[in-house]
Design goal:
The structure is a single chain. With 283 residues, this protein is of the alpha/beta class. The protein is 44% helix and 21% strand. It has 10 helices and 14 strands. It has helices at residues 2-21, 38-53, 65-74, 90-114, 137-140, 151-159, 184-195, 222-230, 238-250, 266-272, and strands at 25-30, 57-62, 81-82, 85-86, 119-123, 130-134, 144-149, 163-167, 169-170, 180-181, 199-204, 219-221, 255-260, 279-282. The strands form 4 sheets. An 8-stranded mixed sheet has the order 5-8-2-1-11-13-14-12, sandwiched between helices. Helix 3 packs across helix 4 and helix 7 (184-195) packs parallel to helix 9 (238-250). The longest helix is centred in the middle third of the chain and has 25 residues, at 90-114.
Amino acid sequence: MQKKIETVQTLLEALPFIKEFNKEIVVIKYGGSAQESPQLKERFAQDVLLMYLVGIKPVIVHGGGRQINEMLDALSIAPKFIDGQRVTSKEVMRIVEMVLSGEINKEIVSLLNSHGAKAIGISGKDAKFISARAKDFAKWGLTGNITNVDADVITNLIAEKFIPVIAPIADGGEMGHPGFNINADLCASYVAKAIGANKIIFLTDTAGVLNKDKELLSTLNKDEVEILKADGTIHGGMVPKVDACLEAVEGGVLKAHIIDGRVEHSLLLELFTSAGVGTQIVL
């Protein structure tokens, strides 16, 4: 009986958060181990379905860098990076789109639907809802910066009870243009801003933002983030993550979260518990 009471207490702890986020949009950047481990994929699908069933409106933006590199390797095409960003030639762009839109996107959609969700996969090319221009064509080729997000495309899908699953590829704006490869973190932030999301959550392979003693920093504001970047505490791959968080909150998203996708049900722990997990970034 005591175990049953504890189960009810857990549900009651979640109740105020369910009420708070009911009918709110939550954008999830899905990547890292959560996107690769079979067990974590199942837990992710369960989390998203539960969010959906209690009235939250999830929108998923996914990456796929490792899978792109694997396909390039299989085709004997050497991946090239400058300043940590992929150089996207026309040849590489074909592979990027094939892997992101044709393989990963459809796998996520199928996984969610198999659990009883109503997911639909799209890329920024669909209805031209994400437009971009070359970041620096001479340097990075078809790696792009987003210039516009047509929010109506996503809000219309949400209104029809779909869970949009978005591949980070933008329309090129010209007939015959292959489009642009977009950083998935920034794509998630731009989408979250455009559709008025309440939260954006980045699933990563780290507990969150850590201080120099490797201790988790549970809450950071913009000024604190800039200080930690300047003294090197935030460095490497965490820099674009926190920049994407700041992009979102400066654009009107209430909170951005960096959480550990290696932890089972980390999405539910972040949304429905008082303590939460990971690092939240606010203005």
